[in-house]
Amino acid sequence: MLIRPDFDIHNEDPAAEDPAQCRLLIEVGASSLTYVLLNVRGMRPAAIKVFQWGTQKAGTCDEVVRGIIEKDQILSGFPAHEVFLVYNFPESNLVPEKYFSDDCARPVTSLIYGDLNKDLVLDEKVPWFEFHNVYRISVDLHYLMQEKFPNARFWHFYSLQLKCYKMFTAKDEPLFLKVFFYPEQVQVMICKAGQLQLIQHFPYQDAKDVLFNLLNCCLQLGMGREEVVLELSGMIEKKSALYDELEHYFLNIRFDSMEDSIRITDELLQYPRHFFSSLLKMTICV
């Protein structure tokens, strides 16, 4: 299956970049693959591509990803000095460090998500937080990524976003709700005074699904929607029915932005910065 990029932002010839100065970060989820090729010396993105496909598309995730990698000039052959893989899948548990051991990873995952799925269980210490992220991903997908990028280091999306939160949030908001928008799903991160309360995937079909989940999170965690700071990241337009719905219920809405540490190229200026802010921040944080 041929998947064309929804966004293809690049300079004249990204393949002509000096590989020794480049970092490649690839984020892959159930219905999207996004990557950025960052020139670390100039702190500028040489290329950003976003591939999105619905869950109704034929083929498994690893089949779609393999097709994208093999046909893409950067993913199939550019010898970047550093490569990082970010898995963005929902089967994740944050286990307090004092209770974590290697032996508990699979039983904890099976307890929460069931044991019919025999896929790969990985874990990593979350920087600046006192817990481990234990998560499950497709064996076939992981082996594919290891085959194509044998020297890559990998993370889970939640781990890196928590690291980004500590690095880039100027202050600990008393009530902070961040939403990352993807095809047919959102990821929600909630913190109170710098302490994580929730990080989770939610599927959605329309604006009302998103609104219900956000309001329910606020209700369950005792957060007044009048006081909470709602930060939006990813594929959401300000002029959209979805944004209008959010604006009716939340008083303090802002869009995620990129810090001064990233050079905004002329090509990138054509798009809302929050579209790619989380991706670029992760590329700095790894």
Notes on the structure:
It is globular and about 50 Å long. The protein starts with 6 loop residues before the first strand and ends with a helix. A six-stranded mixed β-sheet has the order 1-4-3-2-5-9, with helices on both faces. It has eight helices and 14 strands. The mean pLDDT is 93. The chain has helices at residues 61-71, 73-77, 105-113, 139-148, 157-168, 207-220, 241-249, 277-285; strands at 7-10, 22-29, 32-39, 44-52, 82-88, 92-96, 120-125, 131-137, 153-156, 175-182, 185-192, 195-203, 229-234, 252-255. It has two domains: 1-168 and 257-286, Protein of unknown function DUF3822, N-terminal domain (Nucleotidyltransferase, domain 5, 2-Layer Sandwich), CATH 3.30.420; 170-255, 2-Layer Sandwich (Nucleotidyltransferase, domain 5). Strand 3 (32-39) and strand 4 form a beta hairpin. Helix 5 (157-168) packs across helix 8. The longest helix has 14 residues, at 207-220.
